[in-house]
Amino acid sequence: MSVSIATITAVLIVGHIVVFLLLLFDTRQGVVTGYDRAFLWGKALQIAGWGLMMGASSTGLVILFCAGNATLVCGWSLEIFAMLSLKVVMNRAYTTGYVLLPTGSVIALLVPGLAVGTRIMTLFLLQTVTYLIPGAILMFSRRDTSLIQKVTGAIYLLCSMSTLYRVVAILQDSAYAAFPGASSSQGVAFALLLQPFLLLLSSMSYVLLKKEQLNRRLQVFAETDPLTGLSNRRAFFRLAGEHVLRSAARNEPLSLLMIDIDKFKAINDTHGHAAGDDIIANLAATLRESIRQSDIACRFGGEEFVVLLAGCDGREAFRIAERIRAAAERSEPRSIRYTISIGVATERGDGTNLDALIQRADDRMYRAKELGRNRVVQEE
Hints:
Elements (H helix, E strand, L loop, with lengths): L4 H23 L6 H26 L2 H24 L6 H19 L5 H25 L6 H26 L13 H37 L10 H18 L2 E9 L2 H8 L1 H18 L5 E6 L2 E7 L3 H17 L9 E9 L5 H17 L5 E3 L2
Parallel strand pairs: 4-5
Antiparallel strand pairs: 1-3, 1-4, 2-3
Helix pairs in contact: 1-2, 1-7, 2-3, 3-4, 3-5, 3-7, 4-5, 5-6, 6-7, 9-10, 10-11
């Protein structure tokens, strides 16, 4: 297998420069984080590293080859560090790990007295770990996953297998050469060529994953009530519609609670709007503590809240509503006692009309107010 090293490195340098410019342009369109800067520095180091590798291929100087590899490892580590920041909280353990990996690689490559084969094998072992960690996290994470994330994880796992294969090649052939085309094994040469091109491809994933993350945050922002952190009216109808379809498919009951704070205007007039906001936030916290993760709690508007209880019949819905009412009555934000009135409506999943269910619960809630407030009223 005859490969021109100069051609390979030239293509990689041009590719990295293009990606660097695209990433630089993208970061100028929005907020730039420290991880974005780390990614750009990583890409710049890779450009420099491939430049050194091109010099090594034309001059045959081992020192240039080692320096190029060391620079590449530092660049890849910075890039992967930034990539991981999109999916996990970069705590001290991750940060320390991605400092030690390139540091160990640089030491292995540049410390005098080591045989070339030992240097390269140590480098590839460290690279295997460098790619294996993000590959496993991105590939097998079940939180906010996407196709782009899975593909990026697969790329990193392929890179880790590529570098591990080259470790095996060194152990089997002490005459293993670092450059493709110099090895008699086409498999080794292919493994060596595969990694940098895969990593060049994965660079664009950072931009795509970041845009996905931004879009997800914008959706959450658009569908979240800022005072309570609960879903807003828009999000409620989207999520509730999914629950109605699911309940219909399973023929399960669906219950809805309409909740209103009693005499809320009088509270605002007496204690001020800040106190009213505290009471609204307090009730939102009570709802989060009282319902299941599969249920939906929403600030419907003003001092009115809605809770959708999936797979919950009338008896269970009444019990949950009574628990919410009692918890609200016991709480005293700013030493202000408040009460709530709750209306409960239940429907079988098959043929449920969400608007009609809301209206029925709303009627029951107003009935609770007519009966003296601070109570739960359910359909007969």
